[in-house]
Amino acid sequence: MSFSKDFIWGAASAAYQVEGAYNEDGKGMGIWDALSDGHVKHGDNGNVACDHYHRYKEDVALMKEMGLKAYRFSVSWPRIIPEEGVVNPKGIEFYQNLVQELLDAGIEPMCTIFHWNLPMWIYEKGGWYCEEISDYFAEYTKVVVEALSDKVSYWMTVNEPACFIGAGYIAGAHAPFESLIKGLDMSKPEARGQIAQKMAVLTKNTLLSHGKAVQTIRKYAVKTPQIGMALNGNIYTPWENTETGVAEAKAQTFTENPMVFNLGWWADPMILGTMPPALAPFVNAEELEMIRQPLDFFGYNCYNSNNYSEDWGSNEHVYEGQPRTAMDWPITPDVLYWAAKFIYERYQLPVLITENGMANLDFVMSDGKVHDPQRIDFLQKYIGGLEKVAEEGVPLVGYMYWSILDNFEWAEGYDKRFGLVHVDYQTQKRTRKDSSYWYADVIKRNSVE
């Protein structure tokens, strides 16, 4: 059997995208709560979302029905610490109840400590520019670990720093909707230097937060912890499976033009203890030692290879009628194979696919069901690549489909549906999609074949 017998099949979500209850039971405001007006399609927000805060038992029952082995959820920092120095017991109670519900259903809880919704009280101190943010993050981590670690073993410190820094502070597409590059003449060296310095501060503070969180988890966890980070970042796949083609793709992924959107920008300091050249002048040896903490797995959120990216201009490889998801992301079936292979070869850590999935044009049809054959075909090919790399001996922890529910897709609002379960946002009715039944069969067989 290609996947190991202890391979963990699961699905994922994020607090702000599913919970709702944005101002209930003592929760404070986060940057997505307070700053998203005018930045999200149709004026959508996460105030109610999927109402998971009140409906988590129903949602866990659906997970059990599917046979999920794990559920990767995130904790809302402003729900736990709504104001500086204030711990909200109701917030802690919610996550304790959720974890217990999962365990009672035979589902492994996997906890992500930070998934984008920074508390406003920290944002007002400078957000990820704030020099003290890594200490605040360590204090927050300690509260979460003391509350949950008697029942939680798997921990991810932060989710996708390339997005919450890159899209939040550089491009300005996500909260807090700031743009380093807006209004700057990038042809001038002083403008490029200004951006590089700010980008380095944001990166260093994020990496220090991760490092201090890892130390905190190891110090205070009751159950022996398994720790990683849920990274994203550009991944390139070979145009040809030749020695030269593979070497070129690896170089492009990790070493060519390293910047905040690239995988090596974050992973190299954390795991190898080496700094990208643009970051090195801003991080001293003591800080690097704090950043480089022993990890148990490499978590990676993977949707497509960047071979067809048009983020920085035209791409000669993009062709007319190219298969794309509803997010307009190219469909690249071999990306999980190459991502797991490249990551393991460089970092020598077991790989956990912390997110993978597709947005599709899903709706409840006249027979009352949600038929999503495109998603099934997508997963057959993508997970097939992961199965192939497992057969070749790359150690894999598991696979978390994104997402368990249709949910608030950040600046895209509610139009983009990634879920295994359809959510009618007017009634909150849940309907399992065909893909959820297909995935349940994969879990039973421990194979896509």
TrEMBL record:
<dbReference type="Pfam" id="PF00232">
    <property type="entry name" value="Glyco_hydro_1"/>
</dbReference>
<dbReference type="InterPro" id="IPR001360">
    <property type="entry name" value="Glyco_hydro_1"/>
</dbReference>
<dbReference type="InterPro" id="IPR017853">
    <property type="entry name" value="GH"/>
</dbReference>
<protein>
    <recommendedName>
        <fullName>beta-glucosidase</fullName>
        <ecNumber>3.2.1.21</ecNumber>
    </recommendedName>
</protein>
<dbReference type="InterPro" id="IPR018120">
    <property type="entry name" value="Glyco_hydro_1_AS"/>
</dbReference>
<keyword id="KW-0378">Hydrolase</keyword>
<dbReference type="InterPro" id="IPR033132">
    <property type="entry name" value="GH_1_N_CS"/>
</dbReference>
<comment type="similarity">
    <text>Belongs to the glycosyl hydrolase 1 family.</text>
</comment>
<feature type="active site" description="Nucleophile">
    <location>
        <position position="355"/>
    </location>
</feature>
<keyword id="KW-0326">Glycosidase</keyword>
